[in-house]
Specification:
With about 250 residues, this protein is α+β, with helices and mostly antiparallel strands. The protein has five helices and eleven strands; from the N terminus they run H-E-E-E-E-H-H-E-E-H-E-E-E-E-H-E. The strands form two sheets. Strands 4-5-6-10-9-8-7 form a seven-stranded antiparallel sheet. A four-stranded antiparallel sheet has the order 1-2-3-11, with no helix packed on it. The N and C termini lie far apart (about 35 Å).
Length: about 250
C-alpha cells in the first residue's frame, strides 16, 4: 500500500474516532462521514503493521447516540417486500433481512427497535431522502463511501447496533481488506489488536474496544469483505449491557 493510501485511510479513522468521543451523551450535531482524501504531515508518519490484523471493524456507522430521555426521531421501520432484491436489505414484521451480510435481525418481543429513515438521517447527518434512496434501491453502495442499512437500539439501555457498508472503490485504496480497515484505528487505543473471530457462522475481523477506552461504553466492531464491499456490524453497549444479549437479536440467514 502506498504512503498516500495509508495516510488517507488513517485520516478516516482519526476523524471517525474523534466523532465517537461524544457517544453516550446527547448529540450536539449529527455525525458526518469523513472522506479519505485529506492528508497532513502528522498522518504521514504512521506506518500500520498488517500482521496485527485479524477481524472486527470500527466504522463510520458507530457514531450514533440514542437519547433515552427524549427518544426522538425513532419510529417503525420502513417496510418492504422480501421479494425486493434491495442492496440495503429489507424489513418485514419487526425483522431486518440482509442477504449480502447473510444475516437477519429480529426485534419482535424484545426491548430493541429499529430507527426509521428519519432516525437514521438524524443520527448520521444524511438527509431522509438520501437514506430512502439507498433503502429503496434508487442509489447503491457505488454512490457513497458509507451506506447505512439498519440501526437498532435498545429502548431500556440505549445500546445500539449498526449495519453499514463501506465502498473502498470510492477511496484512494480500493483493495483494502476488513483487517486493514480496522487496523488503522489501533493507534488510538492501548493494548488492542485486530482479531479474527467467529460471528454468525463466518470468520470476521473484530476490534473490541473496552469501556474504559471509549466514552460510550464497550464497542465491538465486526467487519468482513464481501465482493467489493466491506460489511460492518458495530455494537455499542451502554449501562453495562452484555454483548451476548445484544447479539441474540442476530441470526444467520443460510
Amino acid at each position: 500500500m502506498s504512503l498516500k493510501k495509508k495516510t488517507a485511510v488513517l485520516l478516516l479513522f482519526t476523524l471517525v474516532l474523534s466523532s465517537l468521543a461524544g457517544c453516550g451523551k446527547n448529540e450536539e450535531e449529527p455525525y458526518v462521514s469523513p472522506n479519505f482524501t485529506n492528508e497532513s504531515e502528522e498522518h504521514q508518519k504512521y506506518e500500520p503493521e498488517p500482521l496485527n490484523a485479524s477481524v472486527t471493524d470500527a466504522t463510520p456507522g458507530d457514531a450514533l447516540v440514542y437519547d433515552k430521555e427524549s427518544g426522538g426521531g425513532i419510529s417503525d421501520a420502513v417496510r418492504a417486500s422480501l421479494t425486493d432484491a434491495l442492496e440495503a436489505g429489507v424489513y418485514e414484521n419487526d425483522t431486518y433481512y440482509n442477504q449480502l451480510a447473510n444475516l437477519k435481525i429480529s426485534v419482535a418481543e424484545t426491548d430493541w427497535a429499529f430507527y426509521d429513515a428519519e432516525g437514521v438521517a438524524s443520527a448520521t447527518g444524511l438527509s431522509v431522502e438520501d437514506v430512502n434512496n439507498f433503502w429503496y434501491g434508487y442509489k447503491t453502495t457505488a454512490d457513497a463511501e458509507t451506506s447505512y442499512c439498519a440501526i437498532a437500539y435498545n429502548k431500556v439501555t440505549g445500546s445500539n447496533v449498526v449495519v453499514s457498508y463501506v465502498n473502498p472503490s470510492v477511496t484512494l485504496y480500493e483493495d483494502i481488506t476488513a483487517e486493514d480497515y480496522l487496523t488503522m484505528a489501533l493507534n488510538r487505543y492501548e493494548g488492542l489488536i485486530i482479531k479474527r473471530v467467529p460471528f454468525l457462522g463466518d470468520q470476521w475481523a473484530c476490534l473490541d474496544i473496552p469501556a474504559d477506552q471509549n466514552p460510550a461504553g464497550r464497542r465491538v466492531c465486526y467487519a468482513k469483505r464481501v465482493d467489493k464491499i466491506i460489511v460492518l456490524v458495530t455494537f455499542t453497549m451502554q449501562d453495562e449491557q452484555d454483548l451476548a444479549e445484544a447479539q441474540q437479536i442476530f441470526t444467520r440467514l443460510q
